[in-house]
Amino acid sequence: MINNVLKLVRYNIKKLRPYQSARRIGGGNGLIWLNANESPLSIPFKLKKKSFNRYPECQPIDLISSYAKYVNLSFEQVLATRGADEGIELLIKAFCEPEKDAIIYCPPTYDMYQVNANMANVKIKEIPTIKNTWELDLLSIQSNLKTVKLVYICNPNNPTGNIILKKDLLFLLKITLGRALVVIDEAYIEFSPEDSMVSFLKDYSHLVILRTLSKAFGLAGIRCGFTLANKVIIEILNKVITPYPISIPVMDIAVQSLQKNYITLMKDRVSELNLNRIWLINQLNELDCIDKVFESHANYILVKFFMFEKIFQMLWNKGIILRNQNNKMNLKECIRISIGTRSECFSLIQELKNFSKNNIF
User: Which cofactors must be present for this protein to function (predicted)?
Assistant: First the structure.
């Protein structure tokens, strides 16, 4: 009977390797969670809405208005989604013909770009970033634009933490004009706000920006994101979005988080985490077990370790859960570390110091 069911599955789904989220991988008996780029601090909210017997608006007016004000855009340039991930999916669904069109993505980067393309049976063109500098290979992108509808760029990039230079993004926008949409995933942009491309939406009709409340806003648990683009693109995406993507409780909490006082608190937390990141990088650079610490502009850092497997497992056994990146392109022996509280970062450093004392590198 099982074989009969499997015969019904689409061929591309049979072959699909699903995204390995932090929760899907699991975390053993985790005490310190530094593997999912979440906020280490919880923000308390009380629901203002008390009735849930009616369906919510597809695009809640209060939520769209609040986020439009936050990013200084018009109401018609904002689409609310179930995290930024739904934005990735909707763009492929709306703009790519299965088995015909392609996307470009630039590994090592966020895997959901290629996972969503694989689910939709859309072709993928991998244009790796330049090793160690992580800059875009713009000439290779330019020579591979045939049949491409979407170019996905994560900025700051996950998991490397680097910023893509604005001059490179502007060059990318020029070479894709009239050919493809450029989708810039700014999930971590609050940690480096001066590098946002939102102000260029007025100049480039094919620019799309993805945002989320999961990272700096500390609301990973409510799954609320936004797609920012020109009016025509937003109208197209509204054709393919589910009828009720934003639940009433999610809308309620998200709107509260976008009030002026909560935005101030968010910026204070970002400043604190940025200081923790600097402290952690300085501490890591003094350890013998460290091969290289890469520069980061987000709430995580990428670190290349000597004896990385033993270190990863040792920390896991002690309840300090990190994210192994060894299997990603050009990230051999690398681990990604989310920035936690100062106490959590201190605990990590102490364990690594003990490991360094007891091993020869």
Answer: pyridoxal 5'-phosphate
pLDDT tens, 310-339?
Answer: 999 999 999 999 999 999 999 999 999 999
The torsion angles phi and psi of 24, rounded to 5 degrees, stand at: -70, -40
| Main-chain phi, psi angles of 256, to 5 degrees | -60, -40
Q: Identify any residues that bridge with 185 across adjacent strands, giving them in sequence order.
A: 154, 210
Amino acid present at 78? V
User: CATH 3.90.1150.10 in the chain, residues?
Assistant: 7-41+263-357
How much is the pLDDT for 319?
Answer: 93
- Nearest-angstrom CA–CA distance, 42 and 192: 21
CB atoms within 10 A of CB 333: 18
pLDDT-derived band at 42, boundaries 50, 70, 90 = confident
**CA distances (Å), origin 267, targets 36, 164, 264:** 20, 22, 5
- Torsions phi, psi for 230 (to 5 deg): -75, 165
Say if domain 61-261 classifies as CATH 1.10.940.10.
no
Instruction: Determine contact, residues 239/266, Cβ cutoff 8 Å.
Output: no
Does CATH number 3.90.1150.10 belong to domain 7-41+263-357? Answer: yes
As a whole number of angstroms, the distance between CA 174 and CA 351 comes to 48
pTM for this one?
Answer: 0.95
Instruction: Kindly give the residue spans of alpha helices, DSSP state H, lying in 98-176.
Output: 112-119, 138-142, 166-176
CA distance 352 to 283: 10
Tokens representing 29 are 């008996």
The total number of residues shown for the chain amounts to: 361
pLDDT surpassing 60 at residue 361: yes
Pick the closest to residue 45 from 251, 271, 270 (CA basis). 251
